[in-house]
Amino acid sequence: MKYLLLIAAVCIFCRWALGKWPWEFLRAPSTRSQAVFRARKLLGVEAGASREEIVAAHRRLTALVHPDIGGTNAAMQEANAARDLLLDELPSPGARNLD
Fold first, then answer.
1. Structural domain tally of the chain?
2. How many whole angstroms separate alpha carbon 51 and alpha carbon 30?
């Protein structure tokens, strides 16, 4: 009985201190969040990047990988997909925070 109470206390402390239940750390991140992480890494932008920063990073990357200057179609498509994904993650301009 003592062990069950100890385990419950540890679980509650973990939830309080870290914001997640202990078993939530065992799950793999979602596919979408992995894709967003890879897109940020490819474009070289931070998590809170603005629309302008994303577009500027995309332009810098496409200047390097464009097929007309020796790049490949696949690299260009990957750059475009990364830009589109990160732009989709941004809140819409007309949206308000209702919290």
1. 1
2. 23
30-56 pLDDT, tens digit each:
788 889 999 999 999 998 899 999 999
CA distances 61 to 15, 42, 53, Å, are: 41, 8, 12
**Do 67 and 21 form a contact (C-beta atoms < 8 A)?**
no
Around Cβ 57, how many Cβ atoms within 10 Å? 20
Residue 48 C-alpha from the chain's centroid: 10
Helix (H, G, I), strand (E, B) or coil at 71: coil
Mean pLDDT of 5-20: 87
Residue 44 inside a domain? The answer is yes
DSSP state of 20: S
The CATH number of the domain holding residue 11 is: 1.10.287
Instruction: Find the DSSP H helices in the chain.
Output: 2-18, 31-43, 51-65, 73-89
